[in-house]
Amino acid sequence: MALPRYAYLGPAGTFTEAALRQVVGPDACVELPQADVSSAIEAVRTGEADYAVVAIESTVEGGVTATLDSLAVGEPLVLLREVLVPVQFTLAAAPGVTPHDVHRISAHPHAWVQCRRWLARHLPGVVHVPATSNTAPAALIAERLAAGEDPLTLGFDAALVPPPAVETYGLTPLAEHVGDNPDAQTRFVVVGHPGEVPAPTGADKTTLVVHLPDNEAGALLAMLEQFATRGVNLSRIESRPIGDALGRYSFSIDAEGHIADERVGEAFMGLHRRCPYVRFLGSYPRADAQQTEVHVGTSDHDFVTARAWLDAIRGGAAT
Amino acid sequence: MALPRYAYLGPAGTFTEAALRQVVGPDACVELPQADVSSAIEAVRTGEADYAVVAIESTVEGGVTATLDSLAVGEPLVLLREVLVPVQFTLAAAPGVTPHDVHRISAHPHAWVQCRRWLARHLPGVVHVPATSNTAPAALIAERLAAGEDPLTLGFDAALVPPPAVETYGLTPLAEHVGDNPDAQTRFVVVGHPGEVPAPTGADKTTLVVHLPDNEAGALLAMLEQFATRGVNLSRIESRPIGDALGRYSFSIDAEGHIADERVGEAFMGLHRRCPYVRFLGSYPRADAQQTEVHVGTSDHDFVTARAWLDAIRGGAAT
Amino acid sequence: MALPRYAYLGPAGTFTEAALRQVVGPDACVELPQADVSSAIEAVRTGEADYAVVAIESTVEGGVTATLDSLAVGEPLVLLREVLVPVQFTLAAAPGVTPHDVHRISAHPHAWVQCRRWLARHLPGVVHVPATSNTAPAALIAERLAAGEDPLTLGFDAALVPPPAVETYGLTPLAEHVGDNPDAQTRFVVVGHPGEVPAPTGADKTTLVVHLPDNEAGALLAMLEQFATRGVNLSRIESRPIGDALGRYSFSIDAEGHIADERVGEAFMGLHRRCPYVRFLGSYPRADAQQTEVHVGTSDHDFVTARAWLDAIRGGAAT
Amino acid sequence: MALPRYAYLGPAGTFTEAALRQVVGPDACVELPQADVSSAIEAVRTGEADYAVVAIESTVEGGVTATLDSLAVGEPLVLLREVLVPVQFTLAAAPGVTPHDVHRISAHPHAWVQCRRWLARHLPGVVHVPATSNTAPAALIAERLAAGEDPLTLGFDAALVPPPAVETYGLTPLAEHVGDNPDAQTRFVVVGHPGEVPAPTGADKTTLVVHLPDNEAGALLAMLEQFATRGVNLSRIESRPIGDALGRYSFSIDAEGHIADERVGEAFMGLHRRCPYVRFLGSYPRADAQQTEVHVGTSDHDFVTARAWLDAIRGGAAT
């Protein structure tokens, strides 16, 4: 049987690759590294790949806006799973380089910003040499070493790289966990074709895109009440201009719970009835496995009981 | 077959009797006049009567609060029908009396207040002789006449009475439509035992009682959002202290639509899930036959379509 | 100096008189008993009285609807104070009558209903002789006694009366607290002309009338959000048909707090901006003296702080 | 007098430079090109620059998330102005190259995606050579030409570049407007230090960051009601994880109107009272100059009138 094909933001050593590793082992898939998020998603649409792994909440390698916009329109795709990747950086160099040798550091600007305080404290006065990606400086060092040349001729002495890139490119770590925010993490999702929805686990998330019927101050509220009335929490909401007219917005939303949950289902029906456009982008287990908090009166049992009660009074029973 | 028995606020000639006449002819029922609204309702509970006809929005003969409180607790009863009765008054007297003879008018205080402007214009200086009910002065005149005595010895020359009381008690009308508000009307309901709910007509009303879970400013809003989210208009809402604790309230509500309507049913399920007490008091045709305004996305068809769409996406269909 | 004149639902011995007694002593006012609530309120408008004492939440002697409707339109009046009167009944008779003599009881139908369970337990089989008011049977007995006649010729042996009527009319109590609900109480208000608003006490209530801009399901919600957004609880809400058009409603509302409170003031401004009609009916101390619960962020201090912060950022300050 | 210093995402020829050109002429400022958005914003905080020009709604060159996160915390900065830049691409090459010569195109992956349909139609089979930025291939061609070398040795025959880059780097345009969405545009903002807020124009936007008090389904609604109750429309809302705890969110919001508007001011006070964190990020003219739609009852005049009315009723006036 053919191995599943995964498109992702490559090359080897990126945070996205780390996300991919949480999803599937290197021997259990065909890896299709892509130049950017949109290309990874498009590869699934064209059939070139079965799945894409892309960032959906992160600044460290792009994604987010590109991911949301790519999913909101075009041939329908769904999210099948999410994974969280700690955003850590390692200061690494070619073998033989010591911290005292480090005066010029190559780093993607995003990485540089996230390590700025550590650098100011431990390597004051060090010079930033911009790189085009998080793994580019590591790849350059590896190339030089493979060619038997001196990496220092590259114009930098060390690099800020994702931890997996250290081993991938044969570097020596000089300092680990040099990011200023030790809790930083990025959320990635696995994108695939619609089909069977992953079964509910009690700790699920549901992603959707919805357009408002008009631009009134109350229209956004009315849309959100479809969730609140059924006790459904939202964990992410982002407006995006629709583009076809001034002042019209599309909302990308993560709701807590699974489409199979009664409360989520009824909220979706409410959206379908009142909003001009609703796209279901999938229900999948939460990466943090945190159980959904079920508010009073909003469990599946409450819905089933309420339905039975309604049937009874419709049939003439006394209350 | 036994005729149905109707309890109502008697005696003959009251506005309530006029309401009863809209419901059933005198030969098709057993009439059980009662001294007040609570007694009429209680007569149904004890089995003495099959139905009660009582005022639910009116000041002209009481009702309203007494009706609402009697229905809110105790053995469950339901509203089966509503009728509207124009609240008109006729100035009437014993045969032979002319308008020029009228210096003292007997009237229930409610009636007096509602005819005050007409009286000031047409009979300035006339004296008010309070009566204990709208029909009491007519009955007194009839008694005197039947006994061959002079009604003027009663201490008044004429009376403000409901129009049907003129003929019932053999009076002569001196002036009709003497009420100051020509559009005044009172709403009556037919109360009976739970059983088959009257079929939807497209112009229905649903009455219910509901308690709030707590006393927060937001609890009332959250309750009302159960209606608004499904596009259900309310035509009446009244809070009543529950009585078991300070600051706790019961709400008596008329919603537009029928319990068989999808939007009303879903709203009821929402109330059942979130509120500690919900009593369905019936769905019945509106007396004014005004079709329910169905807001965008809240027709039965919209609900059915939304349910089909939900089933499809739960099954893995693309959107 | 002239004594203040109080109109109220008379005669002596009514619950309304008991309410009046909480407000002012008999030697400190001129009492103007009226036949009904509307007349009492109108007496203030005509200048015949300075104040009226009327029931605003009660079934025991009428009021409520009549009170609300009378205040909602016409020359503006305001509520200055509220008092709570326990609704208790005493079984009383002419001196010399004992409980064993009691086979027929005169009672206003409202009173009869409220004592039904006690009567069934203690005087099973006793007959109800309807009275036209709570105090009427007591007055009839007193008349007979004053005339030297036998009260038993009235057709009843005892009466259910408000406790104060026992002494007023020289009766003998046979049993006290015969009402089925020991906690029953009625809320009365003192109505007067607009002028200085009673000072805030921290335990205040504010009454108002408001019309909705339209008949949408959302219009009621939008009106109530004016309160909820500022953390103002409502303790009473009642819809009343406006009467000028089908489906238009007026709302009579009691809000917790004083018009001088920042949160109440801002809510009133919101109503004034959005609703076609708002009538302020007064702020006055709560009869139960229960301090208003102030939700997080809605104290006067919070408003003042927020205003200062707004002024700062409008002036260019950093936040 | 020293010229104002502007930090922006460089180098010459970027869309951000086009945005900068709308703000200030090249001779009226000192240009400080930066490697990324965060660096540009940080340059203002450190004092290196007076202003930064950064993308706030765009996918074409990054920005957005980085911009929002950089502004949400740290030393307060404000938005002073927004500008819209059409996102157009030109297919350009070294002088002498004709469309028939083009088999390999260098383009930033974002650019490639946005021109895909045009390319499929007009240059089927053309090969994508990824570039590290929108202007990088143009700069490379210019370098070769300046050095007297053949640009075709770069490995590509033409490039997709922002229109201004064509002239900047001395290229020849082969085809203009090759982007698939002719209406695509990106929103940029000018960031500076707090100080005098730009005067209201009637077509303004206000940006803020706010945290919710808790994670309830109703908390987001309650926050948004602070805007809706005052009739303030939102044109952008984006949630961002706060990072200090699971499930806590920060919201970045654009509201229509100016902080000097009464309705916006009152909404801000409401947020200040109820939410744990509110940061005002500036009021500034809308780039599209579209007048703010003022809903019924929410003009400054309505607020002033309501305040006068409230003062009157607080003083005892009749309503």
TrEMBL record, chains A, B, C, D:
CDD domains per record: ACT_CM-PDT, PBP2_Aa-PDT_like
Keyword Metal-binding attached: no
InterPro entries for the chain: ACT-like_dom_sf, ACT_dom, Chor_mutase/pphenate_deHydtase, Preph_deHydtase, Preph_deHydtase_CS
Single GO term (MF): prephenate dehydratase activity
Record EC number: 4.2.1.51
Pathway(s) of this molecule: Amino-acid biosynthesis; L-phenylalanine biosynthesis; phenylpyruvate from prephenate: step 1/1
Catalyzed reactions: prephenate + H(+) = 3-phenylpyruvate + CO2 + H2O
Sorted UniProt keywords: Amino-acid biosynthesis, Aromatic amino acid biosynthesis, Lyase, Phenylalanine biosynthesis
Domain ACT: 208-285
Residue ranges occupied by any Prephenate dehydratase domain in the UniProt entry: 5-193
Pfam families (alphabetical): PDT
Name of protein: Prephenate dehydratase
Organism name: Cellulomonas alba
Gene: pheA
